[in-house]
Amino acid sequence: MGESVLKALNLTKNKKYYNLIEDLSIEIRQGEIISVIGIRGSGKSTLARILGGYHCYGSYSGSIKIDEMELKLRSPKDSDMNGINVLYEDDYLFENLKIYENIYLGSEIRRDGFINWESEINGSKAVLERLHADIDFESRIFSLSFGERQLVKLAKTFVKDGKFIILDEPSVGLTQRECDSLFQIISELKNRGVGICYLTHEPKEALKISDRINIIKNGKFVHSSENDGSLTEDFILSSMTGRTSDREKSKDKTYKEYNITDREREIINYLLRGYSNKEISDKLFISINTVKTHIMNIYQKFGIDNRVELSNFINNI
Predict the structure, then answer these.
(1) How far apart are CA 186 and CA 189, in angstroms?
(2) Whether the Cβ atoms of residue 295 and residue 270 lie closer than 8 Å to each other
(3) How confident is the model at residue 147 (pLDDT cuts 50, 70, 90)?
(4) Cα angle 106, 110, 113; round to 5
(5) Residue 111: exposed, middle, or buried by beta-carbon count in 10 A (0-12, 13-18, 19+)?
(6) Contact of 220 with 240, CB cutoff 8 Å
(7) What is the pLDDT at residue 312?
(8) By three-state DSSP, how is residue 108 classified?
(9) CB-based burial of residue 27 (10 Å sphere; 0-12 exposed, 13-18 middle, 19+ buried)?
(10) Quick check: pTM over 0.85?
């Protein structure tokens, strides 16, 4: 049995007079991490709610498939049963229940028809330790800080052991140490063959952990690509917001002054990241000779002789 693929095809979800998301298509493969990055209100949470069965089948157009089997998810339980586990940004915890009760609520471990409390306590302790969560699993939710509650929500998602995990703004409220632990767990899950969809508004996080990046704006994907080193925080931010940073504006102005073409801009980005001519050729599906010709043109336009001078020239813009 090969690796499964979760596909969302042409998803559109309306609210009164506008679309929350429009014609979104995305693939999540087992053993990879993809990011969907956008500002709040861009449609990330709507996508998570559809994949998680919160927005039930029939309330949106488009389809969801695992491999070639179409899923008609009518509840979060349907989603869980098909191996899709979702951490919602506004996930609810029961204030008066203990941490381990919340973690396994709806996913109880049973033996002979009864809840196996010992197994749930041990499982809760193990996942909280992996998250470096310094909280007592016996504590009740009302006594926890915002960040501690977020760790409990993460633990609740991770114990379900699904094939696909959708995480909506999972790092909100976490310390840097807790974020590092989160990224480590995500990496471990990837290595175990779990497909991760990481929804965030933080470019640094997407660039750090993703194999592929999708940028969403006003309910539509405006960019999708491999995270191969060619994307920058400035590019992601400008794509998310429609606003260009001062540095990107200066760079764009300089490129126009020197008549740098779009293809030459692509090659400059790869050169600055240390790609060889052969690697650039493979990335852009052009011959090595064509790459060399573009590089000679770039050097002539800027009046430089090599990559070091190119790096210094661009960094001084």
Answers:
(1) 5
(2) no
(3) confident
(4) 110
(5) exposed
(6) no
(7) 84
(8) coil
(9) middle
(10) no
